[in-house]
């Protein structure tokens, strides 16, 4: 392909069925404007603590009882960061509080062509799914991080 060299190799072994880790029911679903969410995540991740082994910025997303989403990070060395993002539609389900790598969410959001995305949560410590209204065949799975 025009001066592009693609090299791959086959790894031996049995791989887990990745479809089994994708949740099928989502008690909490939140819709966002993609750019608003992406900008808030970018700002909060600037001050987020980095995982020493992998250097990922860990942030926390919390749906408050007033239906406002708070994205935050706590860093003992630098300080705290907090952003509020208003969902674009009524939230389905109750409150949630989940921590994850901002890098994974940031990279996933940039791939969507949709201006409106939904975060579909299966629970506080379960993977969540990102879907876009104009990307029916695209699904991103983000794994949470325990911060307790």
Layout of helices and strands, plus pairs?
Layout: E1 28-33, H1 34-45, E2 58-63, E3 69-75, E4 79-85, E5 96-101, H2 102-111, E6 116-121, E7 128-132, E8 135-142
Antiparallel strand pairs: 1-6, 2-3, 2-5, 3-4, 6-7, 7-8
Helix pairs in contact: 1-2
Keywords:
single chain; 148 residues; alpha+beta; Proliferating Cell Nuclear Antigen; 4-stranded antiparallel sheet; 2 helices; 8 strands
Give start-end ranges of low-pLDDT stretches. none
What is the overall shape? globular
User: CATH architecture, please?
Assistant: Box
Mean pLDDT: 89
- Structural class based on helices, strands and sheet pairing: alpha+beta
Q: Under CATH, the topology is which? A: Proliferating Cell Nuclear Antigen
Let me know the number of strands: 8
Q: Give the SSE string.
A: EHEEEEHEEE
Distance between the termini: 49 Å
Number of helical elements:
2
Could you say how many structural domains there are in total?
1
Percent helix, as a range, is 10-25%
Percent range for β-strand residues:
25-35%
Q: Rounded to an integer, what's the Rg over CA atoms? A: 17 Å
- Largest β-sheet summary: 4 strands, antiparallel
Quickly name the level 1 CATH class: Alpha Beta
Physical arrangement of strands within the biggest beta sheet: 1-6-7-8
């Amino acid at each position: 392909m025009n001066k592009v060299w693609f090299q791959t190799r086959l790894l031996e072994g049995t791989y887990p069925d990745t479809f089994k880790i994708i949740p099928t029911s989502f008690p909490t679903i939140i819709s966002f404007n993609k750019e608003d969410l992406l900008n808030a995540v970018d700002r909060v991740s600037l001050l987020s603590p980095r995982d020493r082994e992998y250097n990922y910025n860990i942030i926390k997303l919390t749906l408050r009882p007033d239906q406002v989403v708070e994205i935050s990070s706590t860093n003992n060395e630098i300080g705290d960061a907090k952003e509020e993002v208003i969902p674009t539609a009524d939230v389905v389900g109750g409150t949630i509080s989940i921590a994850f790598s901002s890098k994974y969410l940031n990279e996933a959001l940039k791939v969507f062509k949709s201006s409106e995305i939904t975060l579909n949560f299966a629970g506080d410590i379960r993977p969540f799914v990102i879907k876009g209204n104009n990307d029916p065949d695209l699904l991103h799975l983000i794994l949470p991080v325990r911060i307790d």
